[in-house]
Amino acid sequence: MAQRRALALDNGSTLHIVTTERSDGDFGINAEPKALDERRRSHCDLSWSVPIQVHGRAVIEVAGAASNGAEGDGLVTADLDRPLAIQTADCAPVVLYGPGSWFAVAHAGWRGLEAGVVEATVARLQQCGGVVDAAWVGPCIGAECYTFSEPDLARLTTRFGPAIVACNAEGEPSFDLRAAIAVTMGRLGVERVEISDACTACRRDLFSHRARGEAQRMATVAWTER
Ligand SMILES: [Zn+2]
């Protein structure tokens, strides 16, 4: 069942965050359109903005109307009742917010993180006049399940520091995506960071591309309401 939370913001509005699970169905943008629309509406009956994700650092500002069909891995808005959503299976869904009306979602896997998607999303929020001091990070693949090659890990260590190096149960080197996100948030001065410890590979009620080759995706959708 989808995980829901409602956070009271300093400006008096409420930030809703919903993350779906396997039992909620496929939220990938290539799912059958009518079924996908019904799934979305069952969780948030407003017009969702969902980018075409490319593991990059492009950020889309959503204002006035829903945005769909644009390539990007971050979305920002200050509009009420304007749901921003991303789709994941192993990559981390990130929601960034602060005391004001601006908030953002970002799709953060190792490639996007290395490319700087979180930094770019925060920068875009700030350019728009937003303030970010808090982040929520949903289920992603855990370090115990994310075996990596030594050259890739060495490069990522240069980028994020030694905290991102872990190992799996067999002692093979692995990448700690959550640690890389935590390092990034620390550098950005985002003080309140909540990171789910749910692993998409370990948890059979979540989708995993890496562990099970699944093509379906979970959605993380966030929106503010007065
Ligand atoms: Zn795991």
Structure description:
The chain is an alpha+beta fold. It has one domain: CNF1/YfiH-like putative cysteine hydrolases, CATH 3.60.140. It is built from six helices and 14 strands. The strands form four sheets. Strands 4-6-9-8-10-13 form a six-stranded mixed β-sheet. The longest helix is centred in the C-terminal third of the chain and has 12 residues, at 177-188. It starts with a strand and ends with a strand. 44% of the residues are buried. The mean pLDDT is 96. Bound molecules: zinc ion (ZN). The site of zinc ion (ZN) has 6 residues, from loops.
Mean pLDDT rating = 96
CATH class: Alpha Beta
Major sheet characteristics: 6 strands, mixed
Q: What class would the helix/strand composition place it in?
A: alpha+beta
What molecules are bound to this protein? zinc ion
- Order of helix and strand elements from N to C terminus: EEHEEEEEEEHHEHEEHEHE
Outline, from the CA principal axes?
globular
Q: What is the distance, rounded to the nearest whole angstrom, between the alpha carbons of the first and last residues? A: 26 Å
- Which percent range fits the helix content? 10-25%
The amount of beta strand, in percent, is 25-35%
What's the arrangement of strands in the largest beta sheet? 4-6-9-8-10-13
Q: Can you tell me the number of structural domains?
A: 1
What's the count of strands?
A: 14
Total of DSSP H or I helical runs spanning 4+ residues = 6
Unreliable spans: none
CATH topology name, in short, is CNF1/YfiH-like putative cysteine hydrolases
Radius of gyration: 17 Å
CATH architecture: 4-Layer Sandwich
What is the H level of CATH, i.e. the homologous superfamily? CNF1/YfiH-like putative cysteine hydrolases
